[in-house]
Amino acid sequence: MHSFSCSQFLHLVLLLSVIFTSSAKLHRNFYRNSCPKLESIVRSAVEEKYRQTIVTAAAATLKLFFHDCFIQGCYASIILGSSGNNTAEKDHPDNISLAGDGSDIVIKAKAVVDDVPACKNKVSCADILAMAARDVVALAGGPQYDIELGRGDGTISSQNSVPDNLPHSRLSFEEAPSYVCLSWFLSETFDCPLGSTYARIFTLQQVLKQDIQL
After folding, report:
1. Contact call for residues 153 and 130 (beta carbons, < 8 A)
2. Most buried of 19, 23, 96, 141 (most Cβ within 10 A)?
3. Does residue 77 have a known ligand-binding role?
């Protein structure tokens, strides 16, 4: 069995950004005329947040992007909140472990972008999330890569779209490839889909004895 490395997971994130947006008309210079300094604006905002929360920022942002893309594509619907009788994706039990630092990076970067008159209300949160995921990879010492832009923001977010669409921590080897199109990639890096999925216990009260043989 092959072990999963950090670099392999980072490459999966890159592949996700390509797979789930390949059908859209995206290109690297999408905002060249409407917001020419977008890349540097977002990068500066991400770097500032990264320095403030260096322990959690990269993992939180990557997991947010990962969960967003698996539910109806990479359109930032994972950031939308619940309202009225509708429970949003992020409030589904499968997403309850998403750390707030990920969405906070996107929200703060979006605010900084909108402070620039030429860019105000022209850049989608979906693109900012994709850029933020790329930038935290580089800040964490991972590979640098280019992404294509032009995603629209999702306007619908429902917890009903979450069940059976996210890889969970109990996936078997046989089940895992069905959650990611690249089954050949997963066969080489078995732990890849499981590397960012885990079950968190929120209500544990029992104190367990340590196993000194571990």
Report:
1. no
2. 19
3. yes
Residue-wise pLDDT for 158-184, tens only, equals 888 887 777 666 666 565 555 554 333
Evaluate whether the domain defined by 6-188 bears CATH number 1.20.1440.60: no
Catalytic annotation, pick one of 2, 11, 67, 168: 67
pLDDT band at 212 (very low <50, low <70, confident <90, very high): low
Alpha-carbon distance 95 to 157, whole Å?
Answer: 13
How many other C-beta atoms lie within 10 A of the C-beta of residue 193? 26
Task: Give yes or no for a contact between 192 and 185, defined as CB atoms under 8 angstroms apart.
Answer: yes
Nearest to 162 by CA among 77, 75, 101: 77
Tell me the whole-structure pTM to 2 decimals: 0.72
Whole-angstrom Cα distance, residue 83 to residue 132? Answer: 26
d(CA 93, CA 199): 10
Cα 46 from Cα 43, distance rounded (Å): 5
Other C-beta atoms closer than 10 Å to the C-beta of 39 total: 17
The tokens 């995921």 sit on which residue? 133
Identify whether 67 is a catalytic site residue. Answer: yes
User: Does 150 count as an annotated binding residue?
Assistant: no
